[in-house]
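lol forgot to send this yesterday, sorry. struct tokens for the thing we talked abt
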């Protein structure tokens, strides 16, 4: 399991960093009490959802809970979890300017006599120990949100052969096509488990439904052509500079055929060493 712990000063760009990590398939958890990290990772290991990349955001909002942070990291190491601690920093004047531009309230601004500048000083003092423990320190003072995103992608896409994240989405046409789609496949022509009484109330995640959809000559031929097309197109998307791609698969209700086919695409691309994730948007509707 790949584990990142994102920390740093408020206003240094943690939200932009997390958005970039989500785009490349990380399951991101913001402001989780530090002592719950080992338990959360244990749940991920036992999950049916194949969560193998996790990013935690831990910062001064945790208050005194940070006092045990070093012990928690030691516990995680004893459990053979490998992780990297990323600290986002910026100059005080940049932090103050960003807060004034966004008109957000600093979470340490609890007293009327606390200035924003003093809040930044207090937070820097509170995070000094974490900064000293960091594996990577990123100074975002002169980085735009786009530049920070690019830096995160270049740093944490290094294990991917293609340097692109791919998100597969199953959906029901009756609920509309996902607006973020780059590629859309319509599989409503495949045989429909909805009309089989014992399969009607199951989904494409159930083995008998999956096998019903796949055990058909039309599906076999279509699957081969679809996967060949996807594999052919991906390098050209990469050449055009895309760092992420959304492949959507739709059937009528988003319960059976689209789910099975999205899972098929996900498994195929994972075997090709792409960074790939899957979402079944309408499976519970």
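and heres what i got for the seq, position by position
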């Amino acid at each position: 399991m790949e584990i990142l712990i994102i920390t740093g000063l408020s206003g240094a760009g943690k939200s932009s960093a997390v958005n970039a990590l989500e785009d490349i398939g990380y399951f991101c958890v913001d402001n989780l009490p530090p002592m719950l990290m080992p338990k959360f990772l244990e749940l991920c290991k036992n999950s049916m959802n194949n969560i193998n990349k996790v990013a935690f955001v831990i910062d001064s909002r945790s208050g005194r809970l940070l006092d045990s942070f070093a012990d928690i990291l030691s516990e995680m190491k004893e459990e053979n979890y490998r992780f990297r601690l990323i600290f986002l920093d910026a100059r005080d004047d940049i932090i103050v300017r960003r807060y004034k531009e966004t008109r957000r309230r600093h979470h340490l601004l609890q007293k009327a006599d606390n200035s924003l500048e003093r809040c930044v000083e207090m937070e820097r003092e509170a995070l000094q120990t974490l900064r000293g423990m960091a594996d990577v320190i990123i100074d975002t003072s002169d980085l735009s949100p786009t530049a920070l995103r690019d830096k995160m992608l270049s740093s944490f896409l290094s294990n991917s052969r293609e340097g692109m994240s791919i998100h597969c989405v199953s959906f029901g046409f009756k609920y509309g096509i996902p607006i973020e789609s780059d590629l859309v496949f319509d599989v409503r022509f495949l045989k429909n488990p909805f009309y089989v009484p014992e399969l009607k109330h199951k989904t494409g995640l159930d083995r008998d439904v999956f096998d019903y959809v796949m055990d058909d000559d039309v599906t076999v031929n279509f699957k081969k052509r679809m996967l060949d097309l996807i594999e052919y197109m991906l390098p050209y998307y990469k050449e055009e500079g895309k760092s992420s791609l959304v492949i959507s698969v739709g059937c009528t209700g988003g319960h059976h055929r689209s789910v099975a086919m999205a899972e098929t695409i996900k498994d195929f691309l994972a075997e090709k060493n792409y960074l790939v994730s899957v979402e079944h948007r309408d499976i519970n509707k």
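Residues 165-280 form one domain. anyway ping me if u want another try
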